[in-house]
TrEMBL record:
Cofactors named for this entry: heme
UniProt subcellular location: Membrane
Superkingdom, natural source: Eukaryota
Name recorded for this polypeptide: trans-cinnamate 4-monooxygenase
One BP term from GO: lignin metabolic process
Length: 505
């Protein structure tokens, strides 16, 4: 009896909450002119209708239904999706300050110490300082010139290792595994003047596993419900506990094995005898000057581990898969290399600018398989206007950059891999955002500063692979699988391809 009264009371309370929520949301939406979108239920909003998997393709389907700007109410969160070059320009350029912040969520709060990093912090003083401090050690042409020989060395070593694997030229191997070690070595030489000897190096294995786990946890759609509907957050306790553990282990690893080691080396040998400064030396200088704290140093290392290594590796893997699947394109790259550099002359960093076809292959890879197809979510701290609509404060703004680069309205046969498209246009489309239909690195204040490293590293790696090997699918297959797997804002290949790499004599 008592139980049924309680149940009744509970249902009445729920009814009152629902009716009030409808009333309040009606009142609010009367005042604001919100972008179009599906009908929103109280409490849940559009969540039950659109689901968790808000990947670039699903958002493209919704754009076809609701337009170039639409609003999804995901529980308490407002999500605005823009899908035209004009709106992308407005968000990233014209109103770049208004929309230049980043959203936070329960999981990213753990991995970034509530925005103590640079990638996921709001637009403001802290971001400006972090971006300035990271620019000198990572994002200048001087850095490219300092490290290009290290990059070329790492790529040569990867090529040699593949040549030394007899099965590479018969049944094929997952070249990506060796390229992953190469990318870690490229970035760890720049960061700490350190490298890992082999794919079995225990420290490399530990680092790779923890970074992989961090990406999986952060990119999963599994935790969205706790973010959308805060009263459900207690159900995320187990998930968040794992996030915290992974975060602690990762940061300790960065600190104990890399940052402290470098500090020790500098104090025993004297920093002047260490040769040219690596990135962490510059960052520790900023720490000594009191510009940033110990945690900020750790989060800079964390950011580079996710933002630099994986994105570039995914793009390399897609590029390799497309080259394998298109022998004619492979032949054209080789021909250009032979003609411009001379037969047998290995490509080096300065050559990358005089190889338009190879550059077109890199751009086409980034167009068709955009590593971050929705960019890193933007956010407006204050209420704003976009296309005549009111955008509530703290909305998550997604720019569907993948759709901008794959919309048949302005791309001919967008689903096909055709590097030539980048050679045909009169006004050359670059990857730096000179055209709002192609934004693989974003554009404007929050655009990717790593473009200065990523483009030459991609061209060098793919160029060297094509120079040194005939690349083909494994026996019995006419193509390698290029199916994709999307995350919150990442896109990678579903299956790592087995590739046959026959050394060219
Ligand atoms: C092919 C490789 C890469 C791709 C496709 C890529 C793409 C992107 C994109 C789309 C953004 C977000 C732009 C926005 O929100 O408007 C971004 C941000 C960022 N990327 Fe990259 N990136 C790559 C490589 C790198 C590398 C090599 C580094 C560092 C060495 C790097 C560091 C960063 C940082 C620090 C940010 C945050 C910028 C900010 O919030 O102010 N990225 N990247």
């Amino acid at each position: 009896m008592l139980e049924s009264i309680n149940l009744e009371k509970g249902l009445i309370a729920l009814f009152v909450v629902v009716v009030s929520a409808i009333f309040v949301s009606k009142l609010k939406s009367k005042k604001l002119k919100l972008p179009p979108g599906p009908f929103a239920l109280p409490i849940f909003g559009d969540w039950l209708q659109v689901g968790d998997d808000l990947n670039h393709r699903n958002l493209t389907d919704l754009a076809k239904k609701y337009g170039e700007i639409f609003l999804l109410k995901m529980g308490q969160r407002n999500l605005v999706v823009v899908s035209s070059p004009e709106y992308a320009k407005e968000v990233l350029h014209t109103q770049g300050v208004e929309f230049g912040s980043r959203t936070r969520n329960v999981v990213f709060d753990i991995f970034t110490g509530k925005g103590q990093d640079m990638v996921f912090t709001v637009y403001g003083e802290h971001w400006r300082k972090m971006r300035r401090i990271m620019t000198v050690p990572f994002f200048t042409n001087k850095v490219v010139q300092q490290y290009r020989f290290a990059w070329e060395d790492e790529i040569s070593r990867a090529v040699e290792d593949v040549k030394n694997r007899p099965e590479a030229s018969t049944t094929g191997i997952v070249i990506r595994r060796r390229l992953q070690l190469m990318m870690y070595n490229i970035m760890y030489r720049m960061m700490f003047d350190r490298r890992f000897e082999s794919e079995e190096d225990p420290l490399f294995l530990k680092l790779k596993a923890l970074n992989g786990e961090r990406s999986r946890l952060a990119q999963s759609f599994e935790y969205n419900y706790g973010d959308f509907i805060p009263i459900l957050r207690p159900f995320l306790r187990g998930y968040l506990k794992i996030c915290k553990e992974v975060k602690e282990m990762r940061l300790s690893l960065f600190k104990d094995y890399f940052i402290n080691e470098r500090k020790k080396l500098a104090s025993t040998k004297g920093s002047s005898s260490l040769g040219e400064k690596c990135a962490i030396d510059h960052i520790l200088d900023a720490l000594d000057k009191g510009e940033i704290n110990e945690d900020n140093v750790l989060y800079i290392v964390e950011n580079i581990n996710v933002a630099a290594i994986e994105t570039t590796l995914w793009s390399m893997e897609w590029g390799l898969a497309e080259i394998v699947n298109h022998p004619d394109i492979q032949q054209k790259i080789r021909k250009e290399l032979d003609t411009v550099l001379g037969p047998g002359v290995e490509i080096t960093e300065p050559d990358t600018t005089r190889l338009p076809y190879l550059q077109a292959v890199v751009k086409e890879t980034l167009r068709l398989h955009m590593a971050i197809p929705l960019l890193v979510p933007h956010m407006n701290l204050n209420q704003a206007k976009l296309g005549g609509y009111d955008i509530p404060a703290e909305s998550k703004i997604l720019v569907n950059a993948w759709w901008l680069a794959n919309n048949p309205e302005w791309w001919n046969k967008p689903e096909e891999f055709i590097p030539e498209r980048f050679l045909e246009d009169e006004q050359k489309i670059e990857a730096n955002g000179n055209d709002f239909r192609f934004l693989p690195f974003g554009v404007g204040r929050r655009s990717c500063p790593g473009i200065i490293l990523a483009l030459p590293i991609l061209a060098l790696s793919l160029g060297r692979l094509v120079q040194n090997f005939d690349l083909s699918p494994p026996p019995g297959h006419s193509k390698v699988d290029v199916s994709e797997k999307g995350g919150q804002f990442s896109l990678h290949i579903l299956n790592h391809s087995v590739v046959v790499a026959k050394p060219r004599v």
